[in-house]
Amino acid sequence: MSTNPHILVIFGSTRQGRRGEVVANWLMDRLALRTDATYEFIDLRDISLPFFDSPTLPVYGHLAPEAERWAAQVERADGFIFVTPEYNYGYPAVLKNAIDHLYLQWVHKPAAIVNYGGFSAGYRVAEQLRLVLIELKMVPIREQVGISLVPGVVPNVSDKPDSPSGAFLDRALEKMVNELLWWAAVLIPARERDRQDQD
Ligand SMILES: Cc1cc2nc3c(=O)[nH]c(=O)nc-3n(C[C@H](O)[C@H](O)[C@H](O)COP(=O)(O)O)c2cc1C
C-alpha cells in the first residue's frame, strides 16, 4: 500500500477563454516529474456546484446533495494546491463557493497556493485566500508561486526552464511542494490519531 500523500490541485478559474490553463498545465507537467505524492487535478468546471444556499451548515457535517462527490474528493486528499487567478485583488467567486460547500473535509490539511494575474502576479489573492483557509482549520503554507501573465514580466510560465526566470519559477515550486508535503506527512498521523480517539 502506498503511503504517499494524495494532493488535490484545485484550479479556480472557470470563465470562458480562461488564460490560467497555461499555468495549470505548467504546474501539472512539473508535478508529473515528482514521485513523492499522487497529484490529482480538479477543474471546478467539472464540479459545477450550485451557489451555496443550504439551510444547514457544512461545519456540522451537512452537505448539499450536489456537493457529495466533491466532498468525497476533498475528503480523500491529504493536502491541496490552489491554482487561482486574482480578480479585483480577491479569489474567483466560483472558488470560494466550492470551498464554502464543505468544512470537515478541509480540516487539519495543508494548502499551498499558485497565484497568477497581471503585473502583481496575483500575490494579493493569496493573502485573502489564506485568511479563508485558516477559518477552515487548514494550514496555509508560506512558500508560494506567483506567475504574471503579462508578456515580458517575470516570472512567466513561457520562460524556458534553463533561463534565470524559468529556473526561479521551478525553484519556487519545488520549495513550495516540499513544504506542503512536509506538513502533509506531519498531519496524516495526527488526523489518524483523532479518528481513533473518536472511535
Ligand atoms: C473580473 C476580473 C478582475 C481582475 N482583477 C485583477 C486584479 O485585481 N489583479 C490582477 O493582477 N489581475 C486582475 N485581472 C486580470 C486577470 O489576472 C487575468 O485576466 C487572468 O487571465 C485571469 O485568469 P483566467 O484568465 O484564468 O480567468 C482581473 C480579471 C478579471 C476577469
TrEMBL record:
<dbReference type="InterPro" id="IPR050712">
    <property type="entry name" value="NAD(P)H-dep_reductase"/>
</dbReference>
<dbReference type="InterPro" id="IPR005025">
    <property type="entry name" value="FMN_Rdtase-like_dom"/>
</dbReference>
<feature type="domain" description="NADPH-dependent FMN reductase-like">
    <location>
        <begin position="6"/>
        <end position="148"/>
    </location>
</feature>
<dbReference type="InterPro" id="IPR029039">
    <property type="entry name" value="Flavoprotein-like_sf"/>
</dbReference>
<protein>
    <submittedName>
        <fullName>FMN reductase</fullName>
    </submittedName>
</protein>
<dbReference type="Pfam" id="PF03358">
    <property type="entry name" value="FMN_red"/>
</dbReference>
